[in-house]
Amino acid sequence: MRATVGDQLVQHGRVVGQHDKVGEIVEILGQEGHPPYRVRFEDGHEGLCSPGPDTEIRHKDTAR
Question: Which pTM was predicted?
């Protein structure tokens, strides 16, 4: 999984009725675009994320 600053990170809900969490990658802490990432979520919360299989990267040039 590779990302760049400005890409969206989408953590899909794992339980019926749980909404997806969407955030913007604000810093790449791994080498060559690999995790971990610093992510700012829609509610303003920031955190470190090492994405799992329920996570999707939406690249900023294809996010729309």
Answer: 0.85
